Amino acid sequence: MKFGVVVFPGSNCDSDTLYVAKEVFNQEAEFLWHKDHDLKNSDCIILPGGFSYGDYLRSGAIARFSPLMKEVRKFALDGGLVLGICNGFQILLELGLLPGAMLRNKNLKFLCQHVNIRIDNTDTPFTLAGNLGQVLNIPIAHFDGNYYIDNNGFNDLNKQDQIVFRYSEPNGNLSKKSNVNGSTNSIAGLINKNGNVLGMMPHPERASEAILGSDDGRVIFESIIQFINREKNLENPC
Amino acid sequence: MLDEKTITGHGLTPEEYDQIVRLIGRHPNLTELGIFSLMWSEHCSYKSSKVHLKKLPVTGKNVIQGPGENAGIIDIGGGLAAVFKIESHNHPSFIEPYQGAATGVGGILRDIFTMGARPIVSLNSLRFGPLSLPKNRAIMDGVVGGIAGYGNSIGVPTAGGEIYFNECYSLNPLVNAFCLGLAKKDKIFYARAEGEGNAVLYVGSKTGRDGIHGATMASAEFNDDLEEKRPNVQVGDPFREKLLMEACLEIMEKGLIIGIQDMGAAGLTCSTSEMAANAGSGIEIDLDLVPQREKGMTPYEIMLSESQERMLIVAKNDKVKEVQQVFSKWDLGAVVIGSVIKGGNLIVKSGGKRVVDIPVNAIVNLCPVYERAMRPPEPYVLPLLIKEIPLPQDYNNSLLKLLSSPTIADKKWVFRQYDHMVQTNTVFFPGADAALLRIKNQKRALAISLDGNSLYTSLGPKTGGAIAIAEACRNLACVGAYPAGVTNCLNFGNPEKPEIMWQFQQVIEGVAEACKAFEIPVTGGNVSFYNDTDGISILPTPVMGVVGILDDINTAVSPGFKEKGTPVVLLGENQEELGASEYLKHLYKKEKGCPPELDFIKEKAVQKLCLEAISQRLLLSAHDLSEGGLAICTAECAFLSPAKIGCSLRLSESMRTDALLFGESQSRILVTVDKTDLETLLILAQEFGIPANILGKTGGDRLIFFHKNKKVIDTAVKDAFDIWEQSIPDFFEAK
After folding, report:
1. Taking a C-beta distance cutoff of 8 angstroms, is the pair B94, B136 a contact?
2. In the CATH hierarchy, which fold is given to the domain comprising A2-235?
3. Mapping DSSP to helix (H, G, I), strand (E, B) and coil, where does residue B86 land?
4. Residue B425 in contact with residue B438, Cβ under 8 Å?
């Protein structure tokens, strides 16, 4: 399969993400330049972490106007897989592909640390290789990761089972302490109604090699690869 | 002719002015005077330090570039070069902590990528006054925020560093920023304007009035007037710098340019004159072509501006278009503002007129060099009568108090504001003995340690200077890396005071001796004088940044205890030394006595032993003994063990219990080893002539120390950890 990693001015996890796709998982992967209109036949588009356009107006606010994002939106509406990590998640919110908004972390500081997240939905292309309730040790690195959604929106998310990851204790319990950035209902990642666009604040690409302290993030890439390969096999049974 | 007030107002002495007149054969105009004042400032010219810095060893078989360029470069094998440097941004950080620190990070990053290297890691050495004062908390909060704001955005991990607190840094904080980048050995670029007729391009942000006279500000003492210098501080734009970095690395990768220099301190002035001087050529620029942010800027202002995120590039004329295309891809401008010329002059035009015409050699190389008067302070050692220090009643209490000293306490409150993981190379996170970075697709890894204890250097400048090198190297040895190169940042008071100059000379001597002993070259650095506020100088604060190489990343050792029931072994010898210790400072409010002794032979032997033991995979953990001595080191090993494993240790030396627990004798490393490897380690230690004493075993959830069979410390790891972890956050967070 092929990953396309979008490069905005100010993206800074683009190379890390490409490295994991190519070197760790031996998949095809290419950068997609924000000024282009070409998705280069990617099976899964990743909007990587970083500070697109310096995050100057509001995190992700300007990146959504990049020429390439028109194509990404079309791709997503056609059911293509789109994964937004950190700044990529913020861009998906600005783009309206996912509901809600990001506020500053509750302690008003940038937070870079390993956290635990619980997988609360394995019925997605991004988590199918995981187990329900499985806890992943995975880093976050953000200033604006305090996910907010109003009550109606939250009820919708719940009804459609759109909440995929929640910040938790190592044993999977939710607590005020484990909800490091103050997100509504400890939400760390969510998926759209169609189930093909996922946004998450934690960085799976930083937790895909044991030497970096944890490889719990692998399950996300493994899920995507399994999903796409399965789809391809369905298309070409021989 | 300019009046005297204008001349002295530029920080030039009458003698220096006369020298300028002799060199150029006439009186300079105002713009020319401004240029000389910047380039002849202490910050740019090193006029007070030059004679002493010559004593540092700067050569070695792995050195590709020593001092004198934007950064030093060493060969690390595998076709790769490490490009690194440390630089101070103390004065700007005092005036505006957030932007001062942020632009400090921005400046050092530019020094690195200017040479063709992609920055892969930043570290910082910070010094603040006591956190009990609100002003110091505000400064620290701003500095940490600024470092985070810039480094996180540009995507270079801030993977470590060190922070000390002392009264002398109240209102004169120190911000020393280190950066290291990786370049291909055969693709390094220098600041040279070579080839008559080649184009001179200005790239990056537009020029504004910010930062005018930054370099001369950094060469003056602080007093009440200085708060008025607020507009002097530049504002950083990490997003712009990220684009600039990507564009510069791209044109260098494509081989489109001849030379490149960043515009840091002294902006356009420094970059034009240094690039020409380095190549023995001249340079001519037209200021009307310089992109400007504000209207009506004078030649003086344009030449002296320190607007951030700008570079000067020299390229062949037939490559200009390609260079411009790359910059345009990254939404940046690149305009030709002049050319390389014959002769050796800097010629600046504005409005069709020649406003500057002076020899670059005079600007760059002919600044007077001073051998300033030196005199040891009286008395220069504050004697410590150890008998005057009462023995503590309760050593548990002493340990817990010491753990809460901000100098010793956990710095997580700081480090978690830094993105220390971006680029996915950081193997050891902040808090380990050294930052450890893998190099993708290689076995080899890089380790970096910053070190500088100003209590030591104030009470024994020469020993203190030597210890800074020794300890940084020991930190590297603890993870398994051997030292390969040093960069230093020398923070001192006003060099016109003979006592300060004496401290400086002594520290350099100590550093030089240590570098020779460890056979490591100094590849560059920075001197920051005039760290005085209202006439009071900071303690002499040399900071050493030592870069080491670990041959096999898989052998790396971290400080935390790994398993229960493993022997705890002390490599090295305990001495009864309490002088200049954090224990005396924090518990008795005494900054007295001599710093611990340093014996290069012993120090080298203990480090070699540790490296050998690590390469034979004998050690489970290794941690260097430093501030707070054996007890603090042991506590940290417990805190840094994922399961918070405790230990019980027995000490038997005949000496004061407090000296044994908290003294800071050098050349000691605490290790744990698997039972089956113990014998091998002890034999190895014997071969290296290093005492290796089995102090006890890991296990349990308490920290227990016996001295001569009397239990002196017995505390729950959890309780001690909480105090250590909460000390700094408690100063900042409302409960």
Report:
1. no
2. Rossmann fold (3.40.50)
3. strand
4. yes
Strand pairing class (A135-142; A111-119)? antiparallel
Residue B329 has pLDDT above 50, yes or no: yes
Measured distance CA(B562)–CA(B565) in Å, rounded: 10
Provide, as residue numbers in chain B, all residues whose Cβ is less than 8 Å from the Cβ of A16.
422-424
Place of tokens 């005492």: B691
CA angle B485, B488, B494 (to 5 degrees): 165
User: pLDDT digits over B117-146, tens only?
Assistant: 999 999 999 999 999 999 999 999 999 999
Backbone angles phi, psi at A36, to 5 degrees: -85, 175
Q: A20, B424: Cβ pair inside 8 Å?
A: yes
CA distance B472 to B725: 24
Tokens, residue A44: 């899964």
SS3 B623: strand
**Angle (nearest 5°) at CA B540 between B535 and B541:** 125
Between residues 300 and 329 of chain B, which touch chain A (CB distance below 8 Å)? 329
- φ, ψ at B459 (rounded to 5°): -90, -15
B734 close to A (CB below 8 A): no
CA distance B173 to B140: 8
The predicted-structure confidence for A10-51, as pLDDT tens digits, reads as follows: 999 999 999 999 999 999 999 999 999 999 999 999 999 999
Helix (H, G, I), strand (E, B) or coil at B318: helix
Contact state of A20 with B416 under an 8 Å Cβ cutoff: no
- For residues B527 and B490, the answer to whether their CB atoms sit within 8 Å is yes
Dig out the tokens for B548 from the structure.
């080491």
User: DSSP letter string over B227-252?
Assistant: GGGGGGS----HHHHHHHHHHHHHHH
Three-state helix/strand/coil letters over A206-238? HCCEHHHCECCCHHHHHHHHHHHHHHHHHHCCC
Q: In whole angstroms, what is the distance from residue B120 CA to residue B109 CA?
A: 10
Chain A residues inside the 8 Å CB shell of B153: 10, 12, 51, 54-55
Query: Is the confidence at residue B225, as pLDDT, over 90?
Result: no
- Which among B590, B292, B294, B315 is positioned nearest to B455, based on CA atoms? B590
Report residue B481 as tokens: 């890396």
Give the closest residue to B420 by CA, choosing from B410, B431, B409. B431
H or E element, residue B511: helix B498-518
Catalytic residue among B89, B91, B213, B707: B89
Q: CB atoms < 10 A from the CB of B460, how many?
A: 25
**What is the three-class DSSP state of B355?**
strand
Cβ atoms of residues B121 and B112 within 8 Å: no
Judge if ipTM > 0.90. yes
Q: What Å distances lie between residue B438 and A193, B53, B425, B550, CA to CA?
A: 40, 33, 5, 9
- Cβ-in-10-Å burial (0-12, 13-18, 19+) of A171 comes to exposed
Residues B125, B176: contact at Cβ < 8 Å?
Answer: yes
Question: Pick from A13, A56, A111: which is nearest to B416 by CB?
Answer: A111
B183 pairs with which residues across the strands? B81
Tokens 């015409």, residue? Answer: B357
Confidence class for position B212, pLDDT limits 50, 70, 90: confident
Q: Which positions of A are catalytic?
A: 86, 203, 205
d(C-alpha B580, C-alpha B561), whole Å? 29
Does the pLDDT value for residue B431 go beyond 60?
A: yes
Task: List the beta bridge partners of residue B202.
Answer: B312, B335
Position of tokens 């008025």?
A: B228
Torsion over CA of B52, B55, B61 and B66, rounded to 10 degrees?
Answer: 10
From the list B25, B26, B28, B22, the residue with the least C-alpha distance to B7 is B28
In angstroms, the CA B90 to CA B533 distance is 12
Q: Which residue's entry shows tokens 């640390």?
A: A113
β-strands B619-624, A111-119: how paired?
Answer: unpaired
